[in-house]
């Protein structure tokens, strides 16, 4: 018997065509370049990594450009996540990456209650250094702790508030809780997780919060003694 997962249903074809139309509209509006489907083996593209990357994910609607001085990469990613003892789960994300200018950041994943236990099981196997650090944000905006989980390495517990400031937690909790966020080295990734429909408004909202957050991260005080100019100590 052929699994239903292997069949590309007509509704999925129509949805893909609609997504292509939207992303091409975005590319035209902001003078980005649309490439379409890309393979992980294609060296000419700067492929997006991060928490959703795997050896079998598929990327489509790959688009690149520059906005307000930041290099931006957009892709729709699909993957089937599996874990022993758990039911497989199909995921897809619209991902927008912003290349930061001044900072090199530790790995931080800010998750907005959009994923299930299969995703988290895979996340913590691939990134064993990450720990749920929500207890560190109990004194910040209550809507942030209600709507987000923060995963970081234990060695940055003492200065995480220098990076994820009260201004940032309040902004994303009250205005952009529909997205997930990942910071690592010089990259900021914004995720729309399993969107029912990809619209131009959704993509523009990702650009809006991405630019705002990138500018806040780049303008934060930095420790010049660090060889990587990382936001570090109080």
Report on this model:
The protein is an alpha+beta fold and 234 residues long. The protein has one domain (4-219). Helices cover 30% and strands 31% of the residues. The protein contains 6 helices and 9 strands. A 9-stranded antiparallel β-sheet has the order 1-2-3-4-9-8-5-7-6. Strand 8 (180-185) and strand 9 form a beta hairpin. The chain is globular, with a radius of gyration of 18 Å. Mean pLDDT is 87; it is low at 1-8 and 224-234.
SSE string, helix = H, strand = E?
HEEEEEHEHEHHEEH
Low-pLDDT sequence parts = 1-8, 224-234
* Largest sheet: spatial strand order: 1-2-3-4-9-8-5-7-6
Could you say which overall geometry the principal axes of the C-alpha atoms support? globular
Structural class: alpha+beta
Percent strand equals 25-35%
Question: Could you report the average pLDDT, rounded to the nearest whole number?
Answer: 87
Into which percent range does the helicity of residues fall? 25-40%
Question: Ends: how far apart?
Answer: 60 Å
Q: How many H/I helices?
A: 6
Radius of gyration: 18 Å
How many strands appear in the DSSP assignment? 9
Main sheet attributes: strand count, strand direction, barrel closure = 9 strands, antiparallel
Structural domains: how many:
1
């Amino acid at each position: 018997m052929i699994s239903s997962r292997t069949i590309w249903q007509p509704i999925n074809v129509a949805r893909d065509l609609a997504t292509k139309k939207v992303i091409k509209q975005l590319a035209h509006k902001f003078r980005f370049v649309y490439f379409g489907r890309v393979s992980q083996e294609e060296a000419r593209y700067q492929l997006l990594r991060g928490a959703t990357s795997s050896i079998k994910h598929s990327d489509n609607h790959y688009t690149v450009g520059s906005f307000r001085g930041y290099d931006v990469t957009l892709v729709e990613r699909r993957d089937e996540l599996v874990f022993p003892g758990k039911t497989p789960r199909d995921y897809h994300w619209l991902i927008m990456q912003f290349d930061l200018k001044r900072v090199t950041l530790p790995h931080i994943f800010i998750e907005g209650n959009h994923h299930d236990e299969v995703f988290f099981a895979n996340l913590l196997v691939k990134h064993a250094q990450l720990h749920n650090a929500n207890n560190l944000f109990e004194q910040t905006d209550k809507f942030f702790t209600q709507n987000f989980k923060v995963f970081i390495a234990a060695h940055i517990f003492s200065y995480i508030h220098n990076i994820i400031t009260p201004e940032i937690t309040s902004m994303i909790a009250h205005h952009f809780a529909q997205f997930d966020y990942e910071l690592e080295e010089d990259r900021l990734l914004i995720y729309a997780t399993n969107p029912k429909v990809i619209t131009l408004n959704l993509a523009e909202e990702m650009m809006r919060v991405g630019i705002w957050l990138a500018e806040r991260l780049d303008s934060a005080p930095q420790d010049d003694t660090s060889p990587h100019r990382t936001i570090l100590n109080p």
